[in-house]
Amino acid sequence: MKDIQINQETEMANAIRALAMDAVQKANSGHPGMPMGMADVATVLFNRFMSIDPAAPKWPDRDRFVLSAGHGSMLVYAIHHLLGYADMDMDQLRNFRQLGSRTAGHPEYGHADGIEVTTGPLGQGIATAVGMALAEKMKNARYGDDSVDHFTYVIAGDGCLMEGISHEAIDLAGHLGLGKLVVMWDDNAITIDGDTNLSTSTDQQARFAAAGWHVSACDGHDMNAIAEAIEAARLDPRPSLIACRTIIGFGAPNKQGSHDVHGAPLGDAEIAAARKQLNWAYEPFEIPASIYDSWHQIAARGAHKRAEWEQRLSVEFRATEPCDTSALPGAIEAYKRKLSQDKPNVATRKASQMALEVVNATLPFTVGGSADLTGSNLTKSSKMQSVTPQDFSGDYIHYGIREHGMAAAMNGIALHGGLKPYGGTFMAFADYCRPAIRLSALMGVPVTYVMTHDSIGLGEDGPTHQPVEHLASLRAIPNLLVMRPADAVETAEAWEIAMMSKDKPVMIVASRQNLPLQRTQHEAENLTARGAYLLRDPAKRDVTLIATGSEVEIAIAAADLLAADGIKAAVVSAPCFELFEAQDKAYRDTILGTAPRVGCEAAIRQGWDLFLDREDGFVGMRGFGASAPAPALYNHFNITAEAIASQAKNLI
Amino acid sequence: MKDIQINQETEMANAIRALAMDAVQKANSGHPGMPMGMADVATVLFNRFMSIDPAAPKWPDRDRFVLSAGHGSMLVYAIHHLLGYADMDMDQLRNFRQLGSRTAGHPEYGHADGIEVTTGPLGQGIATAVGMALAEKMKNARYGDDSVDHFTYVIAGDGCLMEGISHEAIDLAGHLGLGKLVVMWDDNAITIDGDTNLSTSTDQQARFAAAGWHVSACDGHDMNAIAEAIEAARLDPRPSLIACRTIIGFGAPNKQGSHDVHGAPLGDAEIAAARKQLNWAYEPFEIPASIYDSWHQIAARGAHKRAEWEQRLSVEFRATEPCDTSALPGAIEAYKRKLSQDKPNVATRKASQMALEVVNATLPFTVGGSADLTGSNLTKSSKMQSVTPQDFSGDYIHYGIREHGMAAAMNGIALHGGLKPYGGTFMAFADYCRPAIRLSALMGVPVTYVMTHDSIGLGEDGPTHQPVEHLASLRAIPNLLVMRPADAVETAEAWEIAMMSKDKPVMIVASRQNLPLQRTQHEAENLTARGAYLLRDPAKRDVTLIATGSEVEIAIAAADLLAADGIKAAVVSAPCFELFEAQDKAYRDTILGTAPRVGCEAAIRQGWDLFLDREDGFVGMRGFGASAPAPALYNHFNITAEAIASQAKNLI
User: Fold this and answer.
1) The pTM is what?
2) Residue A401 forms contact with B (CB below 8 Å)
């Protein structure tokens, strides 16, 4: 291994190495190998290229930095400390990975200033960065270079590039030609199990080139070579991959270059040896003033750029920060009034498209899309224009058959700010993008998922396409609002909630089959926001029927059957379990009543204990679906008004 | 478009086209475009290369055919009918997509003979085929060419190649050099939204070449060109991609080549025009005898090959079909007896590795692996040898950082027969492979998933790595057994259940942190097979505490606290909800008792209504975790013996 030339930039990098190995050692937990290996690359990137202002972490036109290899979180924390982020003092580094500190094991969006995205689940960072770079292109097309003109830089590891989501991400980025996206691959030939040649032989540069990327390689420990590679990447009109040849744990003389250094503290002896190797004469968590000065110059340069930007900022752009949704409630209420007169009998996926005509006409910053199911998800409203590699002024994305890449890209678009993304696929394929949905919820990013074909009601495509457990599995994700509207009015209300949401992702679950309007009486209030409400409320109820989405129609029919036998049934529509759970006890008790209950949903019962006791009834699915026309399936699986009525009678 | 030369092989292909368009029309649902576009390629493959025997659909050494583009299911059904599969008479085709027919909307494993794998969720087929081709290599290395020597052929569409899982699959196949895997890509440049150039610009041949594949292209409507390409693919030592340039809906003169023909019936007029175009003079569902004769010759050739194979079949190989697990229960019982003496205090992930020493020593056909977390999942037992591109005689797979590809490959290995695969990753990343886990359950394929680091108990890595909703979301999948053992004995019992399972996948969920032995009294019976059982059973109980995995220790401590206050608490260990639900009511009532209950699991409550009524207590998680040492987190989230005891007291 070549000797390090001792110069100021290398010293800046060694400060990262020292803080990383010392913090991991103190926590007795963490990953020193990656920060030490990529310290030179990261230092050159920040020292010579990055435009950020620690005093204004949310400056909209800042360069974005995404650490896709999130386990190397100490790289970011060390850099933020050295740059002078106010919330990243040395005590935060001393408390790395401790309860309540900002220095979580993996970078957590919202925990510390300047963390652009939560990473750790591999591949998510690079795929989210594609959304950020896409948002930059779209906003640049709308507002011009004066307002939006920045780069998105990613540090990715071998794991990020092995994960399937990376294929979806680079394919989409290459197709759209996101030239201001620069991925620096930590090409250290090491994974947790050992050498990368245990499990991969892919020529990554050839792979990225096949996807339309500009590719290059450099010695990740040669400052000028790194700078030349980044400069070339910035100039090329294609997205760029730089294979940075690095030694994992660089500077730890006895452990570097091996997987032993990946995910465990180095130990006091090796840390002492590394200090010697790096000529680093300072105590743990001690940084000399001259090093701070060098890093602070980066911050000063960024502050100057931000001041210039504020001078020339376009009026149009100012108006987009933040997204103003104040006009929506009025528009939705007017639309609901019209619905109560028109009484459309449409699938809720169609009702979703109808609502989108109102939403997209009212909110100029929505960005629609679908994973190649535009005509099935009905996510494109009449005036939407597709974004193309030649023209980014549109507002609809053809994400391709890439559910996972779509979800991560939507996270990136939402995190970038000023645009409100939504995207669709078949609900069964929510499984394909679940890791990115989870990150939406964990970060509290208000993206909207449109999941159509939401039950056996989709019919002939059969069990691979029929959600059965998906409502339960998605309701299980904390901080995600799962909405299953029963008709066009609830669908409009769900869209209002989704667009007004500031800190929660929302999933709108829609039927393939037509559903009659249930909310024939206009109500100004957004009843869906209550989570569940009484659709039919007899004076004194003998039984309470609770249903969601396409099964509300069946519960109403069951109530009619029971009425014919002189049994009074209340009918509750429950479009959103999470919002009902958030209501006060008095409201919940009023809705649930004290009579026996029967729940109905063309899905498994799991999760229904919010409404039902174990002795209550439930009409739904007990296993996978089947391939047949929808009416035949509802009969076959006995999800019928008759089944609800007979369970109700047994309970009374 | 070039005229079709009318010869017998083209007629054989036109028979597929006619059956596909007629069956879709009669069902008024389905996808005619792909079967009509790929009819020539499929006909050449079967007519000139495939070795299968419809009279012996499970012949172990048959060539495997995987229709990854599962929506084109009529291609398979038509071929199986023409070949003379006994269970695929013309009535099955007339009842395409109807309730109870074998001709489901997408090919369903187990519904009809010769369906090698359930497909439809895009990319799953090609990734499962990688597992089949890997199994072929492994068994060939063990038993020789006389016993195992066949090809695995895949037809994949643009969607399959856009999905992220395809990257994981081709990367793994290229690395291992699975030369007898041949993927025929239906390169028709059409997706549902329109032309592929709406969403992708990837050079697929260059992409596959970068992953170490042999690549070629051919006119997918030129019989001899197709044959030459397949022959070259068979000869090349690398896995092969053949880009088959086809016209979607080939033969439908007014609709072919457009996405209109992808997923909707052609309509009577266009079908009539297609009959004219193809010179197909026969009625719907009418096939002339000469065409049947040609297809039956393929079956006859396969029957002959099978007879030859049975002649030369090695004794060793005969012994492997089916996997004989009869020796395992005795070995596990002896091991449990030893545990009750040794009383190990180990993490259940370590206990899993200890159990694997017994399992792998007893069952020579297990195949272990991990998604690059071997040292964390502890999935490799002491005598296991890694499979390498040079040597397939080993029994451990380094799947790489490819959870999704691993799960699909395990499905393929299990479907191939004679090997029993298991593989590990962190439980939080079960989300990454969920679509393949769902297919394991839907197909009833007995693969074993080892999911370690199963709660906030993993500590510092934080919320991205801490499962909170995963137990609920995985228990929601029908036909999947989720096991969360509390100690080394339950872990051994879980492994016994997993290895004995014939029709269900099993997931073994394991802790990172150490857990004391709870089952200190040896019991011959596999109590874990009961799903839940009484670990502590006082004469007359005041309260019942129910816990799983690492929280059983906490429930026991709570029972001790309560005992100090003179409160008698029964403690139930509930390692498998699905198996408890399957017990008879009498048993369940005995376990649950009539006293108030408190459940405890370091996860959300969803799914616990199997044990708890709404008024019962629950100690667990209400949202995402955090980054800190495990003990700090258990205190922070109040998952403690004190919390359980106080809830118990409030209920009594």
Assistant:
1) 0.97
2) yes
